[in-house]
TrEMBL record:
Domain Tyrosine specific protein phosphatases: 150-218
Matches recorded under Pfam families: Y_phosphatase (PF00102)
Name this polypeptide is given: Protein-tyrosine-phosphatase
GO MF annotations, alphabetized: protein tyrosine phosphatase activity
Sequence ranges assigned to domain Tyrosine-protein phosphatase in this UniProt record: 1-227
Length: 256
């Protein structure tokens, strides 16, 4: 189990319980850019939705499936099709509104479902939010290092409210996306990128054990390098070195 850092954990002011396994994580532009957490459990779904409403979250990112390799990874905390709303402890209801697949303007194998939900928590007005489920990101692994992660992040990059991001433990897949987002914000500000280890230390100081293995750390590098190359930030003289890194990356992540 991964501990929840106490200094920056989300404290619930709604519902019966004040505790949830979730941390605020800052970015260069926003001290509460994300709420990073483990996947909701059967007994924490009500706390999860209380947090979403309390923080006025408009975007939820799910990077795991309910079950993977015959193991439960996350509780079924939201309705995935039309029908009766899901009801949780404390008379909290979550209603399905619409669902569509995220359309990419380029070829990719990434599969991301976007579900619009309406959440009712007693004492609050009805809350609408978008739920993004990356369906095919493997546990402890990496998806193809194409432009899909950056296009995905761009869907909610301007959100002023905290973006809730979770996988199963809330450190591997989730940490990879948070680190990637952090680096992209550095670039967008016009600053020079430092070593990724500097940014990883900053993320881990806010969410313990973020980025679970070498493959995920390399994945962040490869996505960034592909972006910098495609957008002309890097001189063509570096192309041979970039191709060598790409070949090494494929070898290191084969099977992940």
């Amino acid at each position: 189990d991964v501990g929840c850092l106490d200094t920056n954990r989300v404290i619930l002011a709604v519902g019966k319980c004040t505790y949830i396994h979730a941390n605020y994580v800052a970015s260069p532009s926003n001290p509460r850019k994300c709420i990073v957490m483990k996947g909701p459990l059967p007994h924490t779904c009500s706390e999860f939705w209380c947090m979403v409403v309390q923080e006025e979250t408009k975007n939820i990112v799910m990077l795991c499936n309910l079950s993977e390799q015959n193991a439960s990874k996350c509780a079924e905390y939201y309705p995935r099709e039309a029908g009766e709303p899901m009801v949780f402890e404390g008379d909290i209801t979550v209603q399905f509104k619409t669902k569509e697949m995220l359309k990419f303007p380029f070829e990719t194998t990434a599969v991301i479902e976007v579900t619009t939900l309406e959440v009712s928590v007693p004492g609050f007005s009805m809350h609408s939010c978008s739920h993004y489920h990356w369906v095919d990101w493997p546990d402890r692994g990496v998806p193809p290092a194409d432009m899909a992660p950056l296009y995905f992040l761009n869907q909610f990059s301007n959100s002023r409210e905290p973006i809730v991001i979770h996988c199963s433990a809330g450190i591997g897949r989730t940490g990879s996306m948070v680190l990637l987002q952090y680096a992209m914000e550095v670039l967008e500000k016009g600053d020079v990128l430092k070593s990724m280890s500097v940014y990883l230390d900053e993320v881990r100081a806010q969410r313990s054990c973020s980025v679970q293995n070498e493959q995920q750390y390399l994945f962040v590098h490869q996505v960034l390098l592909n972006f910098l190359q495609k957008t002309g930030w890097l001189p063509q003289s570096l192309d041979p070195a970039l191709e060598a890194f790409r070949k090494s990356y494929r070898k290191q992540t084969k099977g992940f």
